[in-house]
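Standup notes, protein team

Yesterday: finished cleaning the Exidia glandulosa HHB12029 set.
Today: Vacuolar import and degradation protein structure.
Blockers: none.

Input for Vacuolar import and degradation protein:
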Amino acid sequence: LSPADPYTDITRLRLQPSSLARHPCLYPGASFAGTQRSGRHAYEVRVTLATVDLAAAHVCGYLRIKGLTDDYPELTTYFDADVITSTGGGNGFRTPKSWGACESRDWQHWTRFPAFRRLKLNDLDQRPEAGEGAVFMRWKEKFLVPDHRVKDITGASFAGFYYVCVDLDPSASPSS
């Protein structure tokens, strides 16, 4: 019996095989970097997924943003995500009233994604079938990391949520 290897990467061991096969970029530990734009300002952002359970329509993780406020040059928040899918729990594209959105706002934001427009939906209560080329989510920031007791930060807010699309087949959308 050999001793356990302390450097073994166990990140992918938590994945369900069907989740990895269908959406290879969505797994615990996956990290995405980009830019968030707000008005004339742009902020460097990194998202790291902590839990991915597509069968239960749930993802959670951490969103780190740089330069948003002077008091906190780098903020990290924990978020929960509602995955929009035809299987499992979760909601359709219509945002629950408790989240503070309305139907017109949902249409305004979802139609910004070419993958959503490819679905040609007539109703926000519809849900995409698995394998339709994209994963749609709503991300709701819950608290600041590492101090979850911080409720208010001047220049930042946890009040809203993000409309998110991971387009697994961007070549299917006409360039514009």
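Follow-up from PR in the comments: Confidence is low (pLDDT under 50) at residues 12-22.
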